[in-house]
Design a protein that fits this description.
alpha/beta; Ribosomal Protein L13p, Chain: A; 4-stranded parallel β-sheet; 28% helix
Length: 149
């Protein structure tokens, strides 16, 4: 066999094909759901995975308000933001965040699992989270994403 005939094929903008997936988050554990959504956004479930390109899929998450947290995380897990000014630190528990902004809970979990660079920011734009069970992306004909729990 000639070693020159075997070439590694890298994914680029011309060869990438993005698929659309829909995920129902009702009664799913947040962490386990988020890891599989992040893997689909990164593109790790594809055979032509390339770490330096955005070859992940687009993911639509519905029923974000019905997601579950294991253990006592609703009362103990805190999300902390800081404005940069003295006294500008704010804390909110996961239970309060589910009541106020349930979309933010899933977005923060998935965003923390993506790369912390420009490529990760581009991958994050392929995530669409909705509180109810309807979404405006019917024209893309999304397929259900199989969540292994």
């Amino acid at each position: 066999m000639d070693s020159i005939s075997y070439k590694t094929v890298y994914a680029n903008k011309a060869t990438i094909q993005k698929n659309w997936y829909v995920v129902d988050a009702s009664d799913k554990v947040l962490g386990r759901l988020s890891t599989q959504i992040a893997a689909a956004l990164i593109g790790k479930n594809k055979t032509d995975y390339t770490p330096n390109s955005d070859n992940g899929d687009c993911v639509i998450v519905i029923n974000a308000g019905k997601v579950k947290l294991s253990g006592s995380k609703l009362a103990t897990k805190e999300y902390i933001t800081y404005s940069g000014f003295p006294g500008g630190q704010k804390r909110i528990t996961a239970g309060d965040l589910v009541n106020k902004k349930p979309i933010k809970l899933i977005e923060e979990a998935v965003k923390g699992m993506l790369p912390k660079n420009k490529l990760g920011s581009r991958m994050y734009t392929n995530l669409f989270v909705y509180e109810g069970d309807t979404h405006p992306h019917e024209a893309q004909q999304p397929k259900p994403l199989k969540i292994k729990l």
